[in-house]
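re the bet — no i am not wrong, look at it urself. input seq straight from the record:
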Amino acid sequence: MYLIIMVVAFVWFIYTLFGLISHLMKGDKNKGVSDTYPEFKFEVVTKVSDKVETPTKEIMELLEKGIRTSGYFKEEKIPDLLADLKRYISTSDRINIKGALDGSVLLSVEEKKSLGLNAKMKYSKRFIEYFNPSVFETIEPRSAVENLYLNAFHKVSRKNELLKMKRDAGIKQIRVVAGECSNIKKLRKKIYGIDEVPELPLSDCDCNYCLCYFEPIIP
């Protein structure tokens, strides 16, 4: 009896498969598989993902603001610099600053000396052309861009960490753990409500970039 059932099922499968192949070979575009064979039901589900703003986008927005307000760069060159930086965003949502600053044509020792740059450093002509030459008296170009990026990166990281503490851990109070900034050390013993934390970096921060972070007060 079992053998008969298996044979019948096999014959039905072959018959159905043959009919399906014949239908496809005829090229009948007015009917779908479900129309010809009601037992085959296909449901097409289109899932539209909500657009999620990644940390990288927020970092780039802050970096652009820092670049535009720093006074280091030629205004007409800023779009090219930003385009270079955006091309070097990696899968880990971090920017490969080194890749963005490198170039195929390097300045000669004489050219670096004439601009007041460190002759031992490697600079591409493309990268140096982004800057107002007058700023080379007070900054080192590569470090300047790296510091602007790190400031933006840590600011977004602090914001996301604070949100995570509030949402996932139910933290109500925090304290500021100071980095190297001498002006923030006066705040290190203060305890803040999680909705009352100071904006970091402080307006009078004296570091190249802010490394302060928030420490939760565990009840």
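see?? The first strand starts at residue 173 and ends at 177. told u. also The CA atoms of residues 116 and 138 lie 10 Å apart. so pay up
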